Amino acid sequence: MDKKKDLQWHPAFFASLKSLTEKEQYGLQLQNEYNLGTKPKQIDVLVTRDKLGTEMRNGIGKIFKKYNIVEYKGPLDTLNCNDFYKVCGYACFYIGDARRVLEVDPADITLTFVCSRYPKALLRHLEKRYAIRTKRVEAGIYYLIGSRFPAQIIVNRWLDPEKYLWLYALRGDLNAGDIRKLLGEYEKHRNSGDYQSMMDIIIRANWERMKEADMCEALKELYEEIYAEKLKEEFAEREKRGEARGEKRGERRGIRRGEALMGNLVSVLMENNRMEDLQKAAADQTYRRKLMKELGIAGRLPQRKAETKRAGL
After folding, report:
1. d(CA 269, CA 181)
2. CA torsion, ordered 191, 192, 198, 201, to nearest 10 deg
3. Of 180, 251, 192, 194, nearest to 222 (Cα)?
4. Any idea of the CA torsion for 57, 63, 65, 68, to the nearest 10 degrees?
5. Burial 135-168 (b: 16+ CB within 10 A, else e)
6. What is the pTM of this model?
7. Using CA atoms, how far apart are residues 123 and 244, in angstroms rounded to an integer?
8. Cβ-count burial 85-106 (b if 16+ within 10 Å, e if not)
9. Nearest-CA neighbor of 198 among 214, 212, 182?
């Protein structure tokens, strides 16, 4: 083993710097192994692209190269100068953290900043300090011309909702038309965990608007439809197991009663802002029954012929 490689030079280096400053009166303070921030540095989203050479049709992705660092600021946050320098630092760390020298080519990195408010102060600073200009590419998408790394700023509230609906909708001031469109699109993807997550946070952020009569009714109808589908699946499974053969009339009655009970459950949960419970109830029969019992909404699924005649839940 090469003993020279085991030598720890950094402590000695720090001590040598201290020796240089001991007799100086400039107020210098040396801090060894200073931690940057209070938590590990973490890129919000890293997008890597393998198929290069063709331009992406998605307007947001047109700038993308091999390695693309994305920083997201929520609706209540502002994109400021510190954020810009932090993400530039992430890019440099990403290059320096590679196993081989320049394994990550700086020319292959881009930066994307997503925010809800146009960052006027940041853009004034960049123009004054570095002569970085802003170029509007399309509604809500701006390139930073002259930036060390190719960079773009996405103001999501200004995006075209026809092209970027879900990114556009990540805010708390949607209008009734926006919400109706979201409900329609969500219905196509409601079995997706990603879409459920997006819809949950959007409903929470726009709760006051969602409680308006027409929006509340639309949301209620959506969950009733989801529940009706679940009931049909449950009846089909019972029939497959031989537990409910020939009971189509009872099935229809049970589904109608189930929809009515689910409508009551939706109303109660919405009034109490319990959206997580609502989503879980639409998918989980056991949890749904638990909530109905808790809230005094009695019901059980038909089990046998005698029970289906009563259309019990």
Report:
1. 23
2. 50
3. 180
4. -110
5. eeeeebbbbbeebebbbbbbbbbbbebeebbbbb
6. 0.76
7. 67
8. eebbebbeebbeeeeeeeebee
9. 182
* pLDDT of amino acid 59: 92
Q: Token match 């029954």: residue?
A: 289
**CA nearest to 301, candidates 240, 243, 222, 219:** 243
Number of residues that make up the chain: 313
Q: What is the pLDDT of residues 230-268, one digit of tens each?
A: 666 666 666 666 654 445 555 556 556 666 777 788 778
List strands edge to edge, sheet with 109-115.
45-48, 67-72, 109-115, 151-155, 141-145, 133-138
Structure tokens at 175: 């209008």
Do the Cβ atoms of 172 and 117 come closer than 8 Å? Answer: no
Tokens linked to 40: 């590990």
H or E stretch including 134? Answer: strand 133-138
* Alpha-helix residue ranges (DSSP H) falling in 104-212: 120-130, 165-168, 176-189, 193-205, 207-210
